[in-house]
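Re: Re: token formats

Sure, here are both.
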Amino acid sequence: MGRRPARRLWPPPGGSPESLAGLTAEALRALPARQFRRGGLCVAASGAITADELSALLGALFGGWPEGAPDGLPPVPGFGARGVTVIPVESPQSSALFGQPGLTTDDPDWEAAGVVLRVLAGGGFSSRLMDAVRVRRGLAYGISAGMEPVMRRGLIIGSVATQNARVGETLAVLREEWARMAADGPTEEERADAIAFLTGSQPLSFTSTRQVASILLALQRNERPLDWLEKRPARLAALSRERLAAVSARLLRPDDLAVVVAGRPVGL
């Protein structure tokens, strides 16, 4: 399974109570004028409102914001963490977050990666991790992971909770399934099932005006064309098992998994 994960104790460098305490009131007061600007505004709306009514409302809400684009944000640091970080917490069970670098939304393999992760970690009882961790071993009530785009950087983030004495076994199973998917990709049956689910569940994302507005906003942020969702089922159907296996090998890095455990895990 590769090198043994290093064990680190909390707190990690940066993002500490001391660094937050160093923020001055003057710096916080100056931030809105630099960042809340009309040039950086992105709006989506859904419901009983016309374009003219929305335009007037936006003017009333944001007309006082300064013109121009906001200051550029500093680059997000690379994903450099590996191994296991332990945060001691008195509890009979431990909660773990795990992750690794992922793909950005403009990557040509973005949708294929979503299918891979659906099979591995996002399919409820049908996912490999749920089957290996809960169904076959009874290690946890649930385990899942998915892609999380954060400020145009792609991450894969997942979570699981289990008894302190079984954290090590749970993480070993996690890495084993991660490596197995990286090596072979999904089976043809898994490919077909995942694509059928992702295609069939798409209409359920439009059951409220809040959901519709959220999707419209995401399309804007990710610079998707208006027909992107309409053409999505065809794009998914065109993904072959061989393509998904290649994306699995590119995407999943079992030796680079970073894990943060809060609890009193035994043996880590």
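Second one below.
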Amino acid sequence: MLDYNIDLSGKTILVTGAAGFIGSSLCARLLSSVNGVKVVGIDNINDYYDVRIKEERLKKLEACTGFTFIRGDISDKCAVDALFAEYRPQVVVNLAAQAGVRYSISNPGAYVSSNLIGFYNILEACRHSYDNGDGVEHLVYASSSSVYGSNKKVPYSTDDKVDNPVSLYAATKKSNELMAHAYSKLYDIPSTGLRFFTVYGPAGRPDMAYFGFTDKLVSGKTIQIFNYGHCKRDFTYIDDIVEGICRVMRHAPERKTGDDGLPVPPYSLYNIGNSHPENLLDFVTILQEELVRAGVLPEDYDFDAHRQLVPMQAGDVPVTYADTAPLERDFGFKPSTSLRDGIRHFAEWYAGYYGTCRK
């Protein structure tokens, strides 16, 4: 295992996308478990999905000591520069991004603005923090399992070649990895990219399958299961994602000199996934059972009448499967929450948030 070289206690940590699913969960974890930490969150609260969920997440965070929220967009360079100048974050976790594979097909501009320009602004701010004598100790940023595209080799390894994205979203995430590597090389900025695999859990993103399926079922609508149910996904519970991020934050890639005498970029890349791909039909069965158990749906609900098997949709891939051996080797951590347990937590949250047996 790697030795931690960053003590988060008393540090100022910037979390972009702080009102998002992963961002808000990370902020809550840091505020509750790290002594004297100051968390600065930024989010533009866009309406890609129900802003009420984002506002509910923020409401809980703003009740915590040590949390500062800034409503802003990382694609606004002046706003990012001003934030860095005022708060001088020592650790930066970039989770702000326009998410969604399918949405990128019809709205490419949103991805260029947030995922490319926004990330460039974060990199530039980290770079110039060194000019002010308060260099960022570690930049951690979100990538995605989408970068693997239609890679047929499984499990997916960070050593795999990923040059054939099947969506613009995936292309922007791969671009983030390349940009971070260049900045690590040129400006000696320690950075670590994390490829997340199908994150789910309570208060998650309504555009994700488990949440969207639930909304449709309670409304009596039909859910569509792509690739006739033969897709597999490496579902990863939110607490496992946050645990992985927290461990990675504490070890910045070290500055080294290579055998050729030249600097080696202080750069790392890891998968964070459950390493247990689930067939979509099995996933839907578990979801149905847990929704009934939580009282979200009645016991006599006719599921067969409300689901339809359909062909693969553009931008989708048949399987995602994470090789997490490097994460386990370096940080002693392997995500382990079962899909049944994770979906149960979601169903119970959904019942509490929206009520039971909605029609």
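Residues 82 and 254 are 28 Å apart (CA to CA). The radius of gyration is 20 Å.
- S.
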